[in-house]
Amino acid sequence: MQLGSALPGLQLSTAPQGHRCCRKPAAAPGIHSKRNVPAAAAAWRASSSTSNSGARPQPAAASVPSCAPALQRRRQQLRTARRVAAGSSSLPLPEPSRAPSRGNSQQLGAAPITGDAGSTMDPQVVATWLQQYLPFKLLSDSSVALLAELMEVEHVPAGKLLAREGSTPERVVVLRQGSITVTGGNLPVPLDAGPGASCFLIELLLGQPSASSVRTSSDCVLWVVRRPELLGLAARRPDLVLELGLKMSQDLAAQVEAMEANQQSEERRSRALQPYRVTTPSRGIIGNSKYADRLRRQIVAAARDPQRKPVLVFGEPGLCKDNVATLLHFGGPDKLRVMVALDVTQMDPFMTELFGRGNREGLLHWIRDGTLAIYNVHKAAPYVIPQLRRLLAEGVYQPAPAPVPLGSIDFPQAERRSSARIIMTAAQRIPAFDGLTTVIQVPPLRVRPADIIDLERYLMRVLSKQKGVRLALTPEAERTLLGYSFPNNIVELEGMVQRAAAQTDPAEVVQGGAGRGADAGSPYTGVSRSLSGSLALDKDVFWFAAQNKDRFRWNMLNSLPLLRQFLAGDFFPEVLNHKIVKPVFAVVVALLFIGPQDRDHNFCLSFFWNYWWPLMFIAYPFLGRIW
Fold this sequence. Notes:
about 625 residues; alpha/beta; five-stranded antiparallel beta sheet; five-stranded parallel beta sheet; 21 strands; about 40% helix; elongated
């Protein structure tokens, strides 16, 4: 195994690929993973005359915990490899013992090198195959050819232990067919490897024990070089060790440089996303009504959408739509990715925090394939809606131009792509986004009164844990809450329950008695102690909910959607006032001044005095807020 491999004793190698420091190893041929060999550095410091004991300590990077330890290991690997290159000519290798004969090798399970079709393979074919993988592709053709001549084939059944952690390996193993499993060392989980994985090359050259256990997980074909033959080759050709050390130091230097650049990028990304991160949802969808069940089904379907289609969550104020957006992220496969949230009301009109400006990157650049939640998107400026629409439809956005000294010149930025999933919340449905998003409407509390009691009891349990005393509501208090319309929905209900719990003092309950009129000298506070020992809050605590001012009011905007749509449209009041009322008012005023001054001959006088003003007086008590 090469120096600095993912496990001392194992080299998962492939053809050249881009390095990613935080990628999880996969059980497929062609995976390259590395880890430091702590004892290798100590052995070389003790034996080499060119020890690098004065190297500077490398500081740990706290902001990116997944990359910093790996970067430190790579730096240490680079120093160790350079010591190998500098001192390999004087390396005191163990004395090679007499190699067993070919006959003994065959008795130990070795066989002629055969291919998949069963024909005898030429060592040149073996060397060509080995040069596809690390560490052999770092060596020259002649060095790989020498190792290929020493290769023998072993057919090993599944479940056989090739080396135990802490033991001295007896051979170099190259996996030709099958798969192996590596455990021990610092691996949190077992690591599977396929064809191309090599084990124990560096351990045998350095005389070190194996730092991990290697076991076959299927029937395998192994190419092996036994320890006496390898040490004999190293004694005859010390330039082979020198070449390996030089090549590995160059490879490790390139990897360290790439990891440093990746670490700096991850640190910048962490700093950019930290103020906007969303950790976990505050609660689920509470309630057993048909509306709550339908909302849960919609959330689950949207969260598990394989296409990651954008979602628009809309509803009245106070429905905790931001919590629904969080449930959409953490309820599906995206829960392991980052989620950030932005509020339109806290951004500038051009939303530069989201899209970026000039050379300053926005959140869409740093979030990558995570989830972006945009709250109160209905309050976005009209000129930003086309930009959002294109982001939802094509995943393309354009940063705002950088400010320039000449205000009449604009330098548009290049378009960029984003793979983030977009979740938006709004107080109403946005027609511009129809067909581009999955729409979820959160029903208000007034249409699902059955969920009010479930929400109240959940909030009481949470407050009971905070106060250290059991809280409950009497049936009269629950009926009082059911009779309230809750214009601000869940937020208002939560505020009521918290206010009632804040007014509860267990000491006053004990002093005041167990209920209403328990002590004539003590005023009743609306709190009593039930037979189960919990504090029962009476309806008197919710006096503000009992004073329902909307009891005799009819909300025409909620009951008549067409009227609400008309009043929220462009016709009212802009078109009506400026294009209709103004010319009509001018004509009416002219007729009142110029026309006849009696109601029998002037239509305007007759209309205003007979119909307009009487109707205004009659309608005012019923439509007072229309003014």
